[in-house]
Design goal:
Elements (H helix, E strand, L loop, with lengths): L12 H15 L3 H15 L5 H9 L13 E8 L4 E7 L15 E2 L4 E9 L4 E5 L3 E4 L4 E3 L2 E6 L5 E4 L5 E3 L6 E9 L5 H6 L2 H5 L1 H11 L14 E5 L2 E5 L10 H14 L3 H12 L8 H13 L21 H11 L1
Antiparallel strand pairs: 1-2, 2-11, 3-12, 4-9, 4-11, 5-8, 5-10, 6-7, 7-13, 12-13
Helix pairs in contact: 1-2, 7-9, 8-9
Length: 333
């Protein structure tokens, strides 16, 4: 089936994909149905040879991407509306070969949110999914869960993570990019329109904490972080009442990862043109000299490695491997 019904030369396959997914969400009876109807277009989008160019052009249209601090996964925004969010996640490979196949973060679920994901570039990561975590010992914050699936998430493969289902991507050997379709599991309401306003979206974490303190989080349908994260311990899995998120690393590390993405996806020429255009806008760049150096490396074809920051590699509850997970699963079986 072909979903690309282009009405003019100005429309792109990405425009058509977003329009089709939006149609699914507006007309479907449930959010689960909307996701299921969107899977074929996500798979077809992963086969579009022009997708990487569209991703790069969209995200290098403003200087913001050259000013960010570093997060382990580099996010490229595609679409944000009251019904869903589409974002491309660039999974940067680890600095050491023996980290391939180890945890990228905690075993975690996303509360009431639904996630559909398709790999569009690279080998993809190995993906583990678990049953909804159940309390085993509340005093010790110990939980039990069952393994539902441990399988590759290769290019063109679509995976779905249901509400409250715990999962874990493992580090890929080389750069891998997934497109993620996020939505609430309940139908869109006026609150979703409010939460998509720029001021609200850019201060989401701060407003969530304020709402929690004054007791209106449930009324505002906020996805509060309460035992969303788990890690293997002797005898099972330890739950974390409060999420300990990765700190942001320096902008310099983020820039290395961004230019690594441009180079690895064969978007060096387009990326260099767009980066240079941003440098000429007069915007302030704290790392202008580094941007210029990386730009020269990109044009010369000199290898540019992505960078995980030190703060991304030293959180003890994210540093575990498959063997440790399997030991915990056997303990609670």
């Amino acid at each position: 089936m072909n979903f690309w019904q282009r009405k003019s030369e100005r429309r792109t396959h990405l425009d058509d994909a977003v329009a089709f997914v939006k149609h699914c969400f507006v007309t479907a009876r449930t959010r689960h149905e909307a996701h299921q109807r969107s899977w074929p277009v996500l798979e077809q989008l992963s086969r579009d040879p022009g997708l990487m160019s569209l991703l790069i052009a969209k995200n290098l249209s403003t200087p913001e991407i050259l000013q960010r601090t570093n997060y382990p996964v580099l996010g490229l925004e595609l679409e944000l509306n009251p019904h869903f969010q589409l974002v491309a996640n660039c999974w940067i490979p680890p600095p050491e070969a023996d980290m391939v196949g180890t945890a990228t973060k905690t075993i975690h679920h996303h509360g009431k949110l639904l996630l559909s994901t398709v790999t569009v570039f690279g080998p993809g990561y190995e993906h583990w999914m678990f049953s909804k975590p159940e309390v085993a010992d509340a005093n010790q914050e110990n939980y039990s869960m069952r393994l539902l699936e441990a399988a590759p998430h290769p290019v063109h493969h679509v995976s779905f993570v249901d509400r409250y289902i715990a999962h874990l991507p493992l580090y890929p050997a080389t750069l891998s990019i997934t497109i993620c379709l996020w939505s609430n599991s309940v139908q869109t309401s006026w609150l979703d329109y409010v939460k998509r306003m720029s001021l609200i979206k850019h201060n989401e974490d701060r407003l969530r904490e304020l709402a929690k303190r004054v007791g209106v989080a449930r009324a505002l349908d906020l996805n509060l972080i309460d035992y969303f994260d788990f890690y293997p311990v002797e005898g099972g899995f330890r739950g974390m009442r409060d999420r300990q998120e990765f700190s942001r690393g320096p902008c310099a590390d983020h820039l290395h990862s961004l230019f690594h993405v441009l180079q690895s996806t064969k978007q060096s020429e387009l990326g260099a043109t767009l980066v240079e255009r941003q440098l000429n806008t007069g915007a302030h760049f704290a790392e202008r000299l580094l941007i210029e150096k990386l730009l020269a490396d990109l044009r010369a074809g000199r290898p540019i490695a992505g960078k995980l920051s030190d703060c991304h590699l030293n959180l003890f509850h994210t540093r575990f491997n498959k063997l440790e997970i399997e030991q915990s699963l056997r303990a609670v079986a």
